[in-house]
Amino acid sequence: MTSRHADSNGEMTVTRDDLVALLNEDLAREYQAVISYVIYSQVLKGPQYMNIAAELEKHAAEELSHALTLAGQIDYLGGMPIATPKPVKTSSEADAMLRFDLEAETETIHHYRQRVRQCEALGEYAIAEHIRDILVQEQDHQVALASALGIEVPNATKAKTPLHDEHSRINAGITRDV
Question: In sequence order, what are the beta bridge partners of 13?
Answer without folding.
Answer: 5
